[in-house]
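If I may wish for something, please sit down with the protein I am sending here and say whether tokens and residues agree:
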Amino acid sequence: MDNIEIEEYISNLNLEAPQYLQDYAISQLVNIEESKLYMLLQPVSKSYWGNAAIVLKQIGYPRVKSIIPGLLEWIQDMNWPGSKEIVGLLVTIDDVIVPYVKQVLKSGDGIWIIWLLSEVVSKWDKELRTQIKDNLLELAITMNNNLVIEGVDLQALKLLNEYELIDSKKALSISKRKRELYLDLVENIDEFIGTIEK
């Protein structure tokens, strides 16, 4: 399949195209060469993404190995069309995904990280989670506002605790320290509100 043919099929992924054209395009695009899979990563505009995600999920792992970073980018916002299908694909990938996940966990993008943790990593088995244990611990103890506001720290701690990747005493210690910090923050805010209201 050459690029022109692929682009023609992609144009029929549009939700406004007749259903029979969408279905036919999907059936043809599942045969796309691996070197051209990148063309299905969030093509054209959002009205194409849902069907493109269906194609990618049908293609499946290991054929999508070369576009794992692009698949992870797709879940930066779980409100994007096709994101649920992409999650369904990502959770089928073995430990090849781990280095890419580690990059996202170090990105500082709280929204992207919380989606990754809650939608993908939460479905991993203990063996995969163990490979990112240090990253999860780093996130659990973070005081980075961007990450704390999104609840990344608590989600990471929950994932560590769920498979006993840290002992319960350490999990409890981190949780209590977080609570103290949050209470101090609330007290400071309440004090500030009090000065404004006077």
Notes: The chain is about 65% helix and 0% strand. The chain has two domains: 1-93, 106-198.
